[in-house]
Amino acid sequence: MPKTPQPSVAAQAGSITLGGDMTVHRLGYGAMRITGKGIWGPPDDRAAALATLRHVVELGVSFIDTADSYGPDVSEELIADALHPYPAGLVIATKGGWLRAGPGQWTHNASPRHLEEAVAGSLRRLRLERIDLYQLHIPDPAVSFDASMEMLIRLQEQGKIRHIGLSNVTLEHVERARKMVPIVSVQNRYSFSDREWDYLVDYCESNAIAFLPWGPLAQNRKANNVIEAIAAARNVSTAVVSLAWLLRRSPVMLPIPGTSSITHLDENVSAAAFHLTDDEFQRLATVLPVPFSLR
Fold it and tell me: I need a labelling partner for 3 at 20 to 30 A (CA). Which of 55, 149, 188, 207 fits?
């Protein structure tokens, strides 16, 4: 008798629809960490990076987030090398607006000309005819925000971008952008221990905009003792509890934890099937987040 097919691990987190026509599982993967140290250059072990990306899809993850600045270019190239031709239903989101001069160095450039060139480069490296979700990586203080958005809108009209998202923005940026074009996602730093953008999460939920928290595991921060107690009692890692909290925090939350390790990838994605009890969630809700200065 044939075995009943088992649902993918990632699918157990539920789904979210972006832009009304693009449904993905609500636990994604961030492809920043597959590059070299300082998010610069190729990974030390290219074969391991490719294997990790392939395992992402094996776990049922249907949303991968990257950017042209990761490497630069390296993350996008690895994704294409590992996964192209892409399986049906896989959404690859990328971003533009940063330039790189060296390890750990990031420089603004969201000029219309640069964004046009960035989109062309991402299309080429990812081997796509259209990018499903293209995000302005960060507003450029030296460039009109409206001018940056106008270029992305033009590229969308040309069929090179399917949907537009924003990253590292304020509520004012989101509201200004939405007057110009539908915004389907916002990607800001957010975790259990870092809730500076709570009000923006609430805004996104009220307006059916996906919220992609970067730094969802609050790396380099002291773990909260309540999370540690719950993790110990349930025999899981604090990472799993942190991701489960994010998934329950809002139905528009789409965490994108990143790693270059298959072991850590399995651990992170297992959070899709882990559910906090009402009591655990309430205990966590009463805990104040760790101040960002305590990194």
Answer: 55
Residue 226 domain-assigned (yes or no): no
DSSP character string of 209-235: -EE--BSTT-TTSPPPHHHHHHHHHHT
Dihedral sign computed on CA atoms, order 170, 171, 173, 178? positive
The pLDDT value given to residue 221 = 54
- What's the whole-number mean pLDDT along residues 197-205? 97
- Dig out the tokens for 215 from the structure: 């730094």
What is this structure's pTM?
0.93
Locate tokens 């998202």: which residue?
165
Q: Domain count for the chain, please give it.
A: 1
Phi, psi of 16 (to 5 degrees): -140, 145
Given the residues 70, 134, 190, 203, select the one marked as catalytic: 70
Q: Is 70 a catalytic residue?
A: yes
Look up the CATH number of the domain holding residue 196: 3.20.20.100
Structural domain contains residue 247: no
pLDDT at 239 over 80: yes
Evaluate whether residue 43 is within a structural domain. yes
For residue 230, tell me if it sits in a domain.
Answer: no
Residues 95-125 pLDDT 10s: 999 999 999 999 999 999 999 999 999 999 9
